[in-house]
Amino acid sequence: MKHDFEYMNYSSSDRLAMLENRAAELERRLAESAPDRAVPDYPAEEFGMTEFPMFDPPADEMFDQAPEHVPGYRGSSGHRGYARHDGTDSYPDAGVGGPDGPDDRTEVLINRGRRNAKRGLRRWRSHWRGIMIGLAVVFAGATLLANLPGGGASWPASVAGVKSDIAIACQNPNVVSEPSQLNFACAKDTRQILWVFALLTSGNQPGYTDPANGRKGLVPITPAQGGDIAWSLNLHHPYDPANPIDSLQVAARAINNIIGGATLTGNNGSPVVQPGLESKPSNCLRYTGSSALVTRQGFPARCATPMTSTEGEAALVSDVFKQWMVGAPAQTAIQAGVLFVNADNPGDSHVQAILNSLPSTAA
C-alpha cells in the first residue's frame, strides 16, 4: 500500500492569522463563561495600590500553568493582582487585573509575543549606527597611528652619537668647496648625508677599517686622500681617521667638492678647474628640473636652479655615494638616497627594509 503525505508550508502571515483566530475563539469562550467585570470590594488607595478593572479568572482546568510571558503573570501559582506603588506585588483573593476587554487581551497576546520574539534583533538594530560609528573611529585611529611620521620606529641608537659629532665637525668654516663655497654636506637641512654615509659604510664605528681597500674612518676614505683634504681644512697634523671629528670634516669637504667641483693650483701655478656633479646639464635636469647652468671664469659650472624636490635630492645623494664608494653596488647608492630623504621618517617601510638588511655593525 502506498501512502502519500502532504507537507503544508505556511507563511508568517498565514500563521499569524491562524493565531489571531484561535485567540479570538478563546476570548469568546471566556466571555460566555465569565461574569461581568467588577471592581475590587475594598479601596485600593488604602493599600497604596493602583486600581485596575478586574474580571474573574477562567476555571483552573482551562490552563495547567500560566506562561511567564503572559502579561500580569506573577509566578508559578497563576495568581495575578495589583502592582504596588512601592514596587512590590499584592495578590488579593478576589479577581485578577487584566486588559480592558477580550479584543485588548487578544492584541496584547499577539503583539507582545511577536515583539518578544524579535527583541534581541531589534535591540541590535537600534544600536547598529552607534556600533558602526565606534568601529569606524577605532579603524581611523589605527590607520592614523600607522601613518604617523616614524610610526613608533627609530634610527639605530648609534645615529644620535654621530649627529652630535657632526654638529661639532660642521663648525669648521673650511668644509665648503672652493671657490664656489657650496656647503651641501653641512647645511642644516642636508647634513644628514654625513650620518647616512657613516651608517651605510662603517656602521657608525669611528675606528672602522675596510680590509678590502684600506679605507678608514667613520666615513671611510683612504689615508692619502684624507691627508690631502685635511691640509685644505687647516686641520691639525697628522690627520687621524679614527677621530670621528676629523673623519666627518674630511668627508664634508670631499662631498662638497664632489657636488660643486673645485679649483686647484696646477704644478705650473695655473688654476685647474675640476667640475662637480652640478657642472653637467643632464645632472642639473635630474636634480632641479632644469638643465640651465651658471658659468664663471675660473669657477666650476653649477646648476642655475635650486633643488626643491625630494626626488632631486635623492638622485644627487645617490650620485655622490657612487663617487664616494667607487665600485659599490648600485643598490647601495639608491639606499643612500632613500635614507637621506626619510631622515625624519625612520618608520617608512623602505627605510625599515634597508635597516633590516644592514650588517650587524650598523646596529
Average pLDDT level: 77
Helix content: 40-55%
Please provide the ordered H/E string of secondary-structure elements.
HEEEEHHHHHHEEHEEHHH
Sheet with the most strands? 2 strands, antiparallel
Rounded Rg: 45 Å
Unreliable stretches, pLDDT < 50, 5 or more residues?
A: 1-7, 47-55, 61-98, 112-117
Find the structural class using helix and strand composition: mainly alpha
Strand order, main sheet: write it out.
1-4
Number of domains: 2
Polypeptide structure, described:
- This protein is mainly alpha-helical and 363 residues long.
- The protein folds into two domains: 12-119, no CATH class; 158-362.
- Helix content is 44%, strand content 7%.
- It is built from eleven helices and eight strands.
- The strands form four sheets. A two-stranded antiparallel sheet has the order 1-4. Strands 2-3 form a two-stranded antiparallel sheet. A two-stranded antiparallel ribbon has the order 5-6.
- Strand 5 and strand 6 form a beta hairpin.
- Mean pLDDT is 77; it is low at 1-7, 47-55, 61-98 and 112-117.
Properties at a glance:
363 residues; 2 domains; two-stranded antiparallel sheet; elongated
